[in-house]
Design goal:
About 70% of the residues lie in helices and about 5% in strands. With about 240 residues, the chain is mainly alpha-helical.
């Protein structure tokens, strides 16, 4: 596709998005006014349907299909990043360049902190996901905590242990399965009780977001720690 065509398509999409956004903003109640129809109805529906957390009721019950769109956007972003970084590496390998991962140089204090915080951070992420239907938090927040917690091993300077803990192909498959599970649950549980639907969808989101975070951070870490060695020279070259 030519650059001019890409710019034209982007301009048309941006103009359409701006028009829809402006129309939506003009239809909102006045800022600071006493009329808040959406919030009043959302809280009322959450209480009427027996969901103890109004925020989770909105995300996974009243507008679960919107949440599905957000999850698929994250899935697409993670897959795109993984694909782009793989292309960069394959281009280097085409000329015979070999790769290895250099050690992370960290202080002893940071190494100890990384090891100590890892189990507590993982436990916190699981707690946030598991209790997202009853208390503040949920699958999105807990998934990010879980995904980043694993990479505390990088702070500990133990990159081989990090690689063993988060094999990228396994997390790629888990992310796809969790995204598909969310879609199936959203369709199959349309008439189910919120007491069943909200925790199930919340858990699927937590797994998908956690795996997506692991993939994104994992691929960027791989690129940042990569040492390229060109054939015949023996001189390693750190990536920019």
């Amino acid at each position: 596709m030519r650059p001019r065509t890409r710019v034209s398509l982007f301009a048309a999409g941006a103009a359409g998005t701006a028009a829809l956004f402006t129309a939506g903003m003009l239809g909102l109640p006045a800022f600071g006014g006493p009329l808040h129809p959406y919030s009043d109805r959302a809280v009322h529906q959450a209480l009427r349907r027996g969901t103890s957390n109004a925020v989770s009721s909105v995300n996974f019950d009243q507008r679960a299909f919107d949440t599905l769109g957000e999850e698929l956007i994250l899935l697409s972003a993670a897959l795109a990043a993984v694909a782009l970084l793989r292309v960069v590496r394959s281009e280097d390998e085409s000329d015979g360049t070999t790769h290895r991962h250099g050690p992370a140089e960290v202080s002893d204090a940071l190494r100890v902190v990384g090891h100590l915080l890892l189990p507590f951070t993982l436990l916190t992420g699981v707690y946030i996901v598991a209790h997202g239907a009853q208390s503040p938090g949920g699958g999105f927040q807990g998934g990010v905590v879980l995904g980043t917690a694993i990479h505390l091993l990088y702070l500990a300077g133990d990159y081989p242990a990090l690689q063993r803990l988060r094999p990228i192909p396994v997390f790629e498959s888990a992310e796809a399965v969790a995204a598909a599970a969310f879609v199936l649950l959203a369709l199959a549980a349309a008439g189910a009780s919120p007491a069943v639907r909200v925790p199930a969808l919340n858990t699927a989101v937590g797994i998908e977001v956690g795996c997506a975070s692991v993939l994104l951070l994992g691929k960027f870490f791989e690129q940042a720690l990569l040492v390229r060695e060109h054939p015949g020279t023996g001189d390693p070259r750190e990536p920019a």
